[in-house]
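Example record for the data management plan.
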Amino acid sequence: MKRKVAIYPGTFDPVTIGHMDIVRRASEIFDEVIIAIAPSTDKKPMFSLEKRQEMLQVACRELPGVRVEVFDTLLVDFAKEMGTNIILRGLRAVSDFEYELQLSYANASLDPDIETLFLMPSLENAFISSTVVRAILRHKGPIEHLVPTAILPYLKEI
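Corresponding structural encoding:
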């Protein structure tokens, strides 16, 4: 039987409990979930690519079938390299949907075999985004309720 592998791409700057909610649930659906971190230099990330990868590895340590990779290619090429055609994306609000729909159509235009699946975070995590976490971090506010406990030491360095 063929293993079901999905890629969950993003910047993860930093990883939030909303991201982890999606990863946990996806790990129950798929045999393997590859968290794919994009450099996203155009977004000017707060954390280096290496630090984001390290935080995700720490946050996912207890989740079987989840691994963290970095990619700097077209997502469809990375998916092919990883041997899958399934891309997972999280949707928090209607505003996310328009952007994500465009991306999924663009990916399908590059590779008609690509399937994009959307998962919504649990209701209590729907408002959480990396942007919100970064804004609170910049102003030295409390973020303990927004990020995985395992990555708190990394955020204290800010």
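Summary line stored alongside the record: The two ends are 46 Å apart (CA to CA).
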